[in-house]
Amino acid sequence: IIDNLLHANHGVIKSKKEIHAIGHRMVHGAEIFTHPVIITEAVIEQTRKCCKLAPLHNPANLIGIESALEILPGIPQCGIYDTAFHQTMPKHAYLYSIPMSLYKKHGIRRYGFHGTSHQFVSEQAADLLKMDYKKMKIITCHLGNGSSIAAIKYGKSVDTSMGMTPLEGLMMGTRSGDIDPALIQFIAEEEKMSAADVTNILLNKKSGMLGVTGISNDMRDVHEAIAKGNLDAKAGLDIFCYRLKKYIGSYIAAMNGVDVIVFTGGIGELDDIVREHTMSELDWLGIKIDNKVNEGRKFEVTMLSTPDSKVKVMVIPTNEEFMIARETAKLVNDMKHSEK
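The line above is the sequence of Acetate kinase; the predicted structure tokens follow.
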């Protein structure tokens, strides 16, 4: 990365001295990190303790931090945690209906992910609509190979679809999303697998769109198969959109209304068919979509709803890198002011 930044032809800086701070996207901060932090040895150790909650992501995040500390010693480093934005959820939204002792002992609860993206697009929606963020009810749909939806009420996340891990919630590229928990034992016994393999291999890597269609985790391949008459591909699309619509409906009920619904992420931004299917038959809520605008939408911010729609529906490209840079700059500036 440093070599590319300094590259004579396509680099953006001439010296490492031009780097004033480094921002790291961190996946899981449990209940320890409720906001971005300056990285210290204590932060590294606390993040290491969270590895059991995100065994695929947190170790890689820590490698990035350790490498940056070695290459750029003395440069402030900041951790921006994917789970932090959702730490405002009320207890009734984040607790599972399992023995309370398990939550108190192991921290088993809903944490949610994609927080940086949900925060960015919800704030952007308020800015673009010239509305007060802290007086709005917003539903954000981050749809990609990993997908999640969030309910944001008066500037705070009050619910989200991913749980203690990113496996819960919506149907995804290779992840199952919500299932009957008893399926794990049933599949393990019937398929002669361990429970760990059912979770880590089958439900995480071989389910979702890939599992249902038997074709691909890429929605573009699914659309091509549907055009050729593949019924399993059609089932995959129908399940994906139906589950998304169910979550949207439940979050509207949970917030007692909604002002704007935002689509973002690779699928949310680029797949007009998914948006159309998901938003269909919601006219009873006063939601009206301009299908021509939806079909013609390219890469920019787009208002999909008609002028007389009671609920605004938008596509807003996410920019997690901007959020990480913004929070890093704020942290470092605050640190410098506190030292004066």
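Note on the example: Strands lie at 22-26, 37-38, 77-81, 137-142, 148-153, 156-160, 260-264, 302-303, 312-315. The radius of gyration is 21 Å.
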